[in-house]
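#data-curation
PF: Archiving a pair of folding outputs for the training set. Convention for this channel: one message per protein, sequence first, structure tokens after, nothing in between. First:
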Amino acid sequence: MANFKGHALPGSFFLFFGLWWSVKYPLKYACRKHRKICWFGSKVGFQRVEVIEGIVKAIFALIGMLAEQFVPDGPHLKLYNHEEKQWDHLMNWQHSTMYLFYGISGVMDIITHTTKAVPVAMDRLMLAIAVFVEGFLFYYHVHGRQELDQHIHLLLLYAVFGGALCIFLEIFFRGNIILELFRCSLCILQGSWFWQIGFVLFPPGGGPEWNQNDHSNIMFITMCFCWHYASSLMMVAANYGIIIW
């Protein structure tokens, strides 16, 4: 959806998972170090958490796909407009494709942690693929747009591709707390930056529009991206510190 809600929705999803992971992974790390005093540290307990997380991820992805397709100005599952002889609402279809891969990742989480049909690392592989597809779609999402619009979306790719690489490394270094915390910080960054994109490109409440070709706006947005990441790191550090303490 090319509006404020269309950016707030995925932003909320990423913020939710980033904040949840910033609690879950330090908790798992603390339980590995202090097995005797950790009341939540059983393998079965965390396995159930992974299954629930997969279900929530799949539900969120389904909500995102339905929202993209069936909003009043959406494509309603129509990919090609035969009357006008052109593709129909490709932006919504791209967003739906992004949600589709996250939904597949959620299903893979459920399969991985409820059966022995696939290797355990498949959940990380599918999540890495989903994040990579998100970045791949967004890279070709803003061609031909105004300068600020392109720049603010391309900044998002640093968080997306960084997250994809981090999750891919987790396939081989599963349980590495450094990689897990790094992934948390990038996921929170994605979520907050989606909200920032919405506020810049579609100011709610009829606020003043940003000058798309003003270089000072581009400089400020770049600096603002760094502030977002600093805030993300502080959130992860705070959650880690509280849980370890």
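PF: Second:
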Amino acid sequence: MNVHTTTNYLFAPLAIPTLPIVGSDALFPVHRIYCVGRNFADHAIEMGHDPNREPPFFFQKNPDTLVLSGQDFPYPSQTSDVHHEIELVVALNKGGTNIPLESAMDHVFGYGVGLDMTRRDLQGEAKKLGRPWETGKAFEASAPCTPLVPASKIGHPTAGAIWIKVNGELRQSGDLNQMIWKVPEMISYLSGLFTLQAGDLIFAGTPAGVGAVVRGDEMHGAVEGVGEIRTRVA
């Protein structure tokens, strides 16, 4: 049941998660966070999978797992193996179902740089048991992200360096042109599985080199032409 008046809430609802927009006082309200798995061939190989083009698969993070770049990433509980995954973030300002490939980019508001932080040990256990990945992927603060840059300012990046350093040491390095599934393909395919909405974010996959971080580590990543992300493991 949808409740439309605040006086009917049993308790005060939580604030809507938002991201800042570069060059604007407006905020981007986040509806859902979708993440595409194994979208770089070299990362698929390092995770022990076939790098050939197979249908994309997706998992979700909760919107309130977002942490703004510059804020600390708190080391999560019940794990001893937390990995960084640097990703391009695609922000939608229009939704729909069964979106045609040729019009998919009309739904893109802009882009950001995100980290798909992962409790790799818990994800590995879930894989072995054939269970969902939420414990490995959707924990608190697991989605650090930069402010969004409108596509009207930077266009739609299809190539450019994507990298992350930990304590100044390069860990991951690739190029957006290495993505197996391109942004319009992801949007079109995903809209056949879910009804996409304005406010949805898509974390578009990570190159090889994922690895563990520990408390005190400084993460600094970037997507060329989009922005840079910085966060400390607290």
